[in-house]
Amino acid sequence: MSHYTDTLTQLGNATSLPRSPEEAVLERVPNPQAGTAFVVRFTQPEFTSLCPLTGQPDFAHLVIDYVPGDWLVESKSLKLFLGSFRNHGAFHEDCTVGIAKRLVELLDPAWLRIGGYWYPRGGMPIDVFWQTGAAPAGVWVPDQGVAPYRGRG
């Protein structure tokens, strides 16, 4: 790990939750398997943000899959970035797609997709899906495994 200490500012250090996604610092590390196509999955089943109009909390189960190129996202920085949405007001679509685009900008992955499975408020769940394009040939991409919302019936 010592060769990463010059570039990583959060891993191994006490780090406060950023006040906003704009202030959050996403960090990356070199992919030790660059040139090999594989899928990395991050699951955040307790993602929270705020409705930009009412200030009421919104909850989602996020699943982020990506095929890395030269870079991997450093997981602690991703956790802090996702946590920074806790007090951030944005619609479901903006949160979901904005997270994906920020990761694409940082990593320049071969492929990335995100599934935002939002819990209903006002009686209607809103699920948001985005990806950079078709997954690379020959890569196993499992189903995201999140059941559609069924409510009570």
UniProtKB/TrEMBL annotation:
Please give the pathway this protein is involved in.
tRNA modification; tRNA-queuosine biosynthesis
Instruction: State the reactions this protein catalyses.
Output: 7-aminomethyl-7-carbaguanine + 2 NADP(+) = 7-cyano-7-carbaguanine + 2 NADPH + 3 H(+)
Q: Which NCBIfam families match?
A: QueF-II (TIGR03139)
The entry's function note states:
Catalyzes the NADPH-dependent reduction of 7-cyano-7-deazaguanine (preQ0) to 7-aminomethyl-7-deazaguanine (preQ1).
Name under which the protein is recorded? NADPH-dependent 7-cyano-7-deazaguanine reductase
Q: What is the species of this protein?
A: Paracoccus tibetensis
Q: Return the similarity comment.
A: Belongs to the GTP cyclohydrolase I family. QueF type 1 subfamily.
Biased composition (Polar residues) is annotated at 1-18
Q: Which UniProt keywords apply?
A: Cytoplasm, NADP, Oxidoreductase, Queuosine biosynthesis
HAMAP family per UniProt: QueF_type1
List positions binding substrate: V73, E74, S75, H92, E93
Under Enzyme Commission nomenclature, its number is 1.7.1.13
Keyword Cytoplasm among record annotations: yes
Q: Which GO terms describe its molecular function?
A: preQ1 synthase activity
- Which InterPro entries does the entry link to? GTP-CH-I_C/QueF (IPR043133), NADPH_dep_7-cyano-7-deazaG_red (IPR050084), QueF (IPR029500), QueF_type1 (IPR016856)
Provide the GO biological process annotations: tRNA queuosine(34) biosynthetic process
Q: What class of enzyme is it?
A: oxidoreductase
